[in-house]
Design a protein that fits this description.
The protein is mainly α and 273 residues long. It has one domain. The protein has 9 helices and no strands. It is globular and about 75 Å long. The two termini are 39 Å apart. Keywords: Membrane, Transmembrane, Transmembrane helix. Residues 17-39 are annotated as: Disordered. InterPro entries: BaxI_1-like.
């Protein structure tokens, strides 16, 4: 899995083989033919009980993920708007706090709603501040980046649901290698700018910067597709409902990355006019 938020949780892992005897969370073991095995008392209890939904059984559902994701983005928007209006210069604080909380949440085996909400708030401070700074220099750039992010999210979801792009092991390996290479490049470029060797966007200026920006946007879009596939596996395998927080957090990480890449790409394009 390319997104460490989801790849570090077994509930979003690879699908089990057909012959596997291990059942989804909370389900009985199966016989060699894949049929569930129940005791006589369990069967009698089942026949005498009303049908249970996934919510009744405490399983992960798509609705859970949607609600949690919407809630996190509501927190992000509120803190982002406050930072934009009051103190845009706090964006660097939000970036550092968001990075630390992101790493903590990414490697937790069990999700912590409080820490995930805190991450959303920190990212709101970061995005609100950096967006205000970009908007002051390039008017209208924020709404362009937002529309581009929303459009890319919708297009990625449609492509995934249509089956036109399949998440295969080869696809995942390629994405991991590409993301690792981009991370190394970004760290080197950040270091060159921080130490004054280069200014502006560093190595991301001009035509080369545009190509790198398009490449980064493509990586983020493909990462979204992998996230969708991981969430689908979690639902199909009967993951506990609490992991809706993990899924929502993973989507937020990718969407924040995608928005920042669009913001930077648009700034490069408008700066070259």
């Amino acid at each position: 899995m390319s997104n460490p938020v989801l790849s570090n949780n077994a509930v979003f892992g690879e699908r089990r083989g057909r012959g596997a005897a291990q059942a989804p969370y909370g389900q009985p073991q199966t016989n060699p033919y894949g049929e569930p095995q129940y005791s006589q008392s369990e069967l009698e209890q089942m026949y005498g009980s009303p049908s249970a939904t996934t919510r009744d059984t405490g399983r992960l559902t798509y609705d859970d993920v949607i609600v949690k994701t919407a809630g996190l983005f509501a927190v992000l928007l509120v803190t982002g708007a406050f930072t934009w209006l009051i103190a845009p210069q706090l964006f660097f604080v939000g970036m550092i706090v968001g990075l630390v909380l992101g790493l903590v949440n990414a490697f937790k085996k069990n999700p912590s709603p409080a820490l995930i909400i805190a991450y959303a708030a920190a990212q709101g401070v970061f995005l609100g501040g950096i967006s205000a700074i970009f908007e002051a220099q390039w008017e209208g750039i924020v709404i362009q980046a937002v529309l581009a992010t929303v459009s890319t999210f919708a297009a990625s979801l449609v492509l995934f649901r249509s089956g036109k792009i399949r998440v295969t092991p080869k696809f995942t390996r390629w994405l991991i290698i590409a993301m690792a290479g981009y991370l190394v490049f970004s760290l080197v470029n950040f270091g060159l700018v921080m130490f004054g060797v280069l200014d502006g966007f560093g190595l991301r200026e001009g035509p080369l910067g545009i190509l790198i920006g398009l490449f980064a946007v493509g990586l983020a879009a493909f990462s979204l597709i992998v996230d969708f596939d991981a969430i689908k596996r979690g639902v199909e395998q009967g993951a506990p409902a609490k992991f809706a927080w993990t899924a929502a957090f993973g989507l937020m990480v990718t969407l924040v990355w995608l928005y920042v890449e669009f913001l930077r790409l648009l700034a490069i394009l408008r700066g070259s006019d």
